[in-house]
Amino acid sequence: MNDEFAFVDELVPGIRWDAKYATWDNFTGKPVDGYQANRIVGTRALCAALDGVREKAESLGFGLLLWDGYRPQRAVDRFVDWSRQPEDWRTKLRHYPHIDKAEMFEQGYVARKSGHTRGSTVDLTLFHLATGELAEMGGGHDLMDSISHHGAPGITQVEAENREHLRSIMETCGFRAYECEWWHYTLADEPYPATYFDFPIT
Fold this sequence. Notes:
Elements: E1 5-7, H1 8-11, E2 16-17, E3 41-43, H2 44-59, E4 62-68, H3 73-83, H4 92-95, H5 103-106, E5 121-128, H6 157-172, E6 175-178, E7 181-187
């Protein structure tokens, strides 16, 4: 692993994580190339910023649950290959109920060159420190649907407030939101804005 990258849990105490693409619980329906361990990796700059996010979230009664950080280019390439395969319906209803596989790219939910591969983008949510329960957000990770957009109609007031809590915390700590996905944030001053890495997560 590049010296400027680290396992996030080693530098940001108290976070929780579930690296979805290292598991069967993702839109492809199985572990993805390049994810050989259920750990979240990111640049040291990302980790430092996330430590500030953690402190800010804790002041509001929340903790952080991370789903993805650095994503090897080979994983992105696997997404492209998967999108060309016949539909098997195993994950469609949960992750892309109203679009076809190919539309994931057209509508901006999956990219052939992903910000994650530069190492300073993260997918995350909040949980309540008092109970450990995830904050209600009006849809789960990688729900590729307009309801996942910031400002989407059709979610409850509590869900909208929780999304706004997350966005406010992240933007205060130096991250940019992605309008199509409430869980997706990129460090505004990322150290590798034009480099796409491909080392595996082991």
